[in-house]
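anyone seen this seq b4? input:
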Amino acid sequence: MENEKTLIHDFDLNLICDYFGRLERQGPGSPESTIRALSFIDNFSNELNIADFACGTGGQTMILAQNTKGTITGLDLSPDFIEKFNTNAEKLGLQNRIKGIVGSMDNLPFQNEEFDVIWSEGAIANIGFKKGLNYWKDFLKKDGYIAVTYESWFTDERPTEIEKFWVNAVPEIGTIGHNISIMQKAGYSLVAVFTLPEKCWTNTYFIPQKAIQKAFLEKNAGNKAAEAFVEYMKYEAELYSKYQQYYGYVFYIGKKI
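predicted toks r here
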């Protein structure tokens, strides 16, 4: 299948943003998983300074804000996502505590030790798990927390088709044990690890995509890249239904030593 030779990063960023901007969440996840990860952060009753890197339109950020005190800065490369992010914050009356800014998570505009918590769902692979944990640590206060979801293998061996797809998409992809070791070597103590349940992929990621694909293709009528992108996303959903026992997103929560 041609999709096997195509990576999501091969598609135009504007096309990707047009597609994912139509969704409440830009990756697998759920309010329940976000709240569960938050429950492992000891001092979340305090007024925290939180950063959400690659926040998208803020699906998870709004949940964070509704379950914490303090302020949250969302950062994303896409101006369109950030515009929607700030609109969503206003709709929920959270604009005094949440602000979205345009920026890159591998070139952060913040001060050292600025944040109590750094959050990132479904995005650290774009910078690399090891690189992200090491670079972002500088922006965390001592005893600050990091909470990220990251694609991970559940088994040591898996079928060639799914291995090829994910190694192409996320060259560093490893097992949960391997990723825990990377986190510890980067200078964090492990707080918690848990796997996102199947519904985080189906109910909040794949099913909502079906509802937006027709309108996306109509807007981009005649655009072969748009058609190929929808086929790629359908292929990803097909692979998940076949191979979900071998891989998934895992929440890794660490505390800066």
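The first strand starts at residue 47 and ends at 53. Strands lie at 47-53, 69-76, 98-102, 115-120, 140-153, 174-175, 188-195, 247-256. kinda curious what u guys think
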